[in-house]
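[Discussion] Sanity-checking designs against the backbone

I'm trying to build intuition for which residues belong where. Below is a structure token string of 154 positions. I'd appreciate it if someone posts a full sequence so I can compare it with mine line by line.
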């Protein structure tokens, strides 16, 4: 069986999306999502019904944005996150737009069977597990990743 990497990233907004403080973030959403969609190893990202992104979904609080996506492997996600110029610039500016106060772990990753899609409920449960137990093969971080499960010998 082949596995893909699911990842949830959450952050509390420093201001509502329509506030001028968030203007550069909002302007960058569409190009950054297009960049992710075209990146090697990208599989899927959560999009609100009828929308272009997930900014209208607030399952973890009214001021908390979510990004839920699937990648072929940790290396593909890491390359998009830290090796694409535009996304790296957004990462560098993240404190202008977001904070993680009271959030606990803001990024959690886990392995799913290829072809499966994670749900926000599952993602929340994985983040809770990471916050309770620290990195494990069931819920881990980019700083402390775990390898994909091996297919059982038949």
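Best answer:
Here's mine. Compare freely.
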């Amino acid at each position: 069986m082949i596995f893909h990497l699911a990842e949830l990233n959450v952050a509390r907004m420093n201001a509502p999306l329509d506030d001028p403080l968030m203007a550069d973030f909002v302007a960058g959403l569409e190009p950054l999502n297009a960049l992710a969609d075209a990146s090697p190893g990208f599989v899927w990202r959560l999009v609100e019904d009828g929308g272009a992104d997930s900014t209208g979904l607030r399952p973890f609080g009214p001021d908390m944005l979510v990004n839920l996506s699937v990648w072929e492997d940790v290396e593909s996600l890491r390359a998009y996150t830290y090796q694409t110029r535009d996304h790296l610039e957004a990462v560098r500016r993240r404190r202008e737009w977001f904070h993680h106060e009271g959030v606990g772990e803001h990024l959690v990753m886990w392995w799913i069977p290829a072809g499966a899609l994670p749900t926000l409920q599952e993602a929340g449960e994985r983040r809770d597990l990471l916050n309770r137990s620290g990195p494990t093969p069931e819920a881990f971080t980019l700083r402390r990743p775990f390898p994909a499960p091996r297919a059982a010998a038949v």
